[in-house]
Write a structure and sequence with these properties.
The chain is of the alpha+beta class. The protein folds into 2 domains: 224 residues, Rossmann fold; 103 residues, Beta Barrel (OB fold (Dihydrolipoamide Acetyltransferase, E2P)). The strands form 4 sheets. It has a 6-stranded mixed beta sheet, with helices on both faces. β8, α5 and β9 form a beta-alpha-beta unit. The structure holds adenosine-5'-triphosphate. Adenosine-5'-triphosphate binds next to α1. It comes from Paracoccus seriniphilus. This is Carbohydrate ABC transporter ATP-binding protein, CUT1 family. Keywords: ATP-binding, Nucleotide-binding, Transport.
Length: 358
């Protein structure tokens, strides 16, 4: 399996940048998700990696070898990269076995090797019993597994997946996520997975690149994105909770800063001495009658085992979990702990200054 790397990668369509200075390395065997809102450039990055588009600037390397950039362009069929689309792209007139065997026929592998590899790929994706069926006789999840088997069979250097579960219903998506996770564990394939479903990205990936407007805002493990978002966009886009402005009090200890948040002094984790905002996850809030900060309940939904409260506190919307149902309009006390402070690049910070996030 191969390492993928992007260096100063830019792609412009009709003068509009779809990708803007992408720099990232994906380790051999790593499962990376590209996550971001519609139009942020996820598919463009995948298509450039596959070789369906040429970069406007910058380079793409596969295991150190330049495949695009610096005057070089390796065509898709010579990159040995597997691709799984949301539309499956199976041959309708071929059986499952023949679909899976096809990449090996193109590569002119001897028949006995072909049979062995196809049998392995079908077994790995749980399709052995369906080998003689036509694609039209399969469910959506089974078709996607055929696409996966067809990609795995030629032992690609990396596998690119473009919203592979977008056409499936919720229950099937969950079970297919398990299939992808198993596929990754068993093959150790380098995987680049495009999705706009953050639950999928956080559940499956070793690291997630959060993209916005053609740029990578943060590239980190799911738990880091959740606990230590780099800016307002990532804090708001990934996970539940609130992003509110913070004011420095000037006090700090070794690991934390004392900040003024919603009129309260709160100790906060931080990677910067000059934060502008805090991310307040639902777990960071305790509903307590003793707490000085008062908030009005604006919504209450049952999540199974606990309730999710939406609160209005000093004009900001907070999200909290509570063991009991709360009445809409009820006023509760809110205590904050274990919040994360960061400096949003769009905001300049000065000591004592109050900032607002538009
Ligand atoms: N062939 C093209 N010609 C012109 N513009 C394009 C082309 N392909 C993509 N774009 C533009 O580039 C930007 C990024 O598109 P891209 O498909 O990469 O986004 P995405 O993040 O995959 O979105 P989605 O989640 O909706 O699929 C968009 O503004 C899109 O309109």
């Amino acid at each position: 399996m191969a390492e993928l790397s992007f260096s100063k990668l830019t792609k412009t369509f009709d003068d509009a940048p779809a990708l803007n200075d992408i720099n990232a390395q994906i380790r051999s065997g790593e499962f990376v998700a590209l996550l971001g809102p519609s139009g942020c450039g996820k598919t463009t990055l995948l298509r450039l990696t596959a070789g369906f588009e040429q970069p406007s600037e910058g380079e793409i390397r596969v295991d150190g070898e330049i495949v695009a950039g610096a005057g070089r362009f390796v065509p898709p069929e010579a990159r040995e990269i597997g691709i799984v689309f949301q539309s499956y792209a199976l041959w309708p007139h071929k059986t499952v076995r023949a679909n899976v065997s096809y990449p090996l026929e193109v590569r002119r592998l001897p028949r006995d090797q072909r049979q062995k590899r196809v049998a392995e790929a079908l077994a790995l994706t749980g399709l052995t019993a369906y080998a003689d069926r036509m694609p039209s006789q399969l469910s959506g999840g089974q078709r996607q597994r055929v696409a996966l088997a067809r990609c795995l069979v030629f032992e690609p250097r990396a596998v690119l997946l473009d919203e592979p579960l977008a056409n499936l219903d919720l229950a099937l998506r969950a079970s297919m996520q398990d299939v992808f996770a198993m596929f990754h564990r068993r093959t150790g394939a380098t995987m680049l997975y495009v999705t706009h479903d953050q639950g999928e990205a956080l559940a499956l990936a070793d690291r997630v690149a959060v993209m916005e407007s053609g740029r990578i805002r943060q590239f980190a493990a799911p738990e880091i994105l959740y606990r230590e978002p780099a800016d307002c966009f990532v804090a708001g886009f990934v996970g539940d909770g609130a992003v509110v402005s913070a004011r420095l009090t000037g006090r700090a200890d070794d690991h934390r800063l004392l900040l003024n948040v919603l009129g309260q002094q709160v100790w906060s984790r931080s990677a910067t001495a000059m934060p502008s905002h805090v991310s307040i996850r639902p777990e960071a809030i305790t509903i307590s009658n003793d707490a000085a900060l008062r908030a009005r309940v604006t919504n209450c939904t049952y999540l199974g085992g606990r309730f999710r409260l939406t609160l209005d506190a000093a004009g900001e919307t907070l999200v909290a979990f509570a063991p009991r149902r709360a009445a809409i309009g009820e006023v509760v006390g809110v205590a904050m702990d274990d919040i994360w402070a960061f400096r949003d690049p769009a905001h300049e910070v000065r000591l004592g200054e109050t900032l607002t996030y538009a």
